[in-house]
User: Which sequence fits this backbone?
């Protein structure tokens, strides 16, 4: 697994006032680990069977290809996040998958009992756009850290508020995503950062949103999410430090070296 920490600098127009944001880029190279790839495929199929075939945000049916891509992207995000956090904290911390269910789909849990919700998205305009760009009409960023949501027509109950919410990004379009693309040596996953529970519940930075696709903005809004804009979240280095402090566990030397070799963009 190739890992690099990147410090992005805000250089664009129509952006937030945060000057920098650190992420980790991972090239997982799944083709070199048949056992792990088989696990990912099995988990994806299992998740597809459990998923409601409608979009969580608007109640519309998803075709089987979109449903599979959503599940595959989610499982890959979980596996790469798990790999990275074990790299950061070592085997004693033991980040592992939490059982998937209809209510809690993509989760990690640590040996200290901390729960981490992992959510992934595709960004067409590049990671820097997701980190800094804002809508000039609303002044709010396009991308955020997504928290729990409530949609009685989709799930039996509200999502449980986890200890942490973690954001993963893929550059490009979902339409181009596939198992073949994920097996490419150049396939990249960006671990952005996230927020802790207190931040997600803080009325000073938390807001509610409805994830309605732009083309469907005239349809009834369903599925209210809690969210915090990426600009007000913890970047990857801050996120790691927050977990370290709350769990009272140190960082591995390998992670410290990763920070020391950080690339600036």
Assistant:
């Amino acid at each position: 697994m190739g890992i690099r920490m990147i410090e992005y600098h805000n250089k664009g127009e129509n952006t937030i006032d945060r000057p920098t944001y650190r992420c980790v880029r991972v090239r997982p190279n799944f083709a070199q680990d048949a056992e792990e790839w088989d696990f990912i495929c099995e988990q994806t199929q299992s998740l597809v069977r459990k998923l409601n075939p409608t979009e969580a945000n608007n109640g519309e049916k998803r075709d089987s290809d979109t449903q599979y891509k959503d599940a595959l992207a989610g499982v890959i995000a979980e596996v790469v996040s798990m790999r990275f956090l074990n790299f950061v904290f070592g085997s004693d911390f033991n980040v592992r998958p939490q059982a998937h269910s209809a209510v809690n789909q993509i989760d990690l849990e640590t040996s200290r009992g901390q729960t981490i919700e992992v959510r992934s998205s595709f960004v067409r305009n590049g990671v820097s756009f997701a980190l800094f760009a804002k809508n000039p009409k609303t002044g709010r960023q396009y991308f955020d850290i997504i928290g729990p949501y409530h949609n009685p027509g989709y799930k039996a109950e509200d999502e449980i508020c986890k200890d942490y919410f973690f954001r993963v990004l893929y550059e490009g379009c979902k339409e181009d995503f596939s198992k073949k693309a994920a097996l490419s040596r150049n396939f990249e996953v960006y671990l952005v950062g996230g927020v802790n529970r207190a931040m997600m519940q803080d009325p000073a930075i938390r807001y509610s949103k409805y994830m309605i696709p732009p083309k469907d903005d005239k349809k009834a809004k369903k599925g209210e999410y809690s969210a915090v804009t990426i600009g007000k979240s913890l970047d990857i280095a801050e996120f790691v430090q927050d977990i370290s402090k709350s769990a009272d566990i140190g960082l591995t030397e390998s992670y410290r070296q990763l920070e020391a070799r950080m690339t600036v963009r």
The longest strand covers residues 115-123. The longest helix spans residues 64-89.
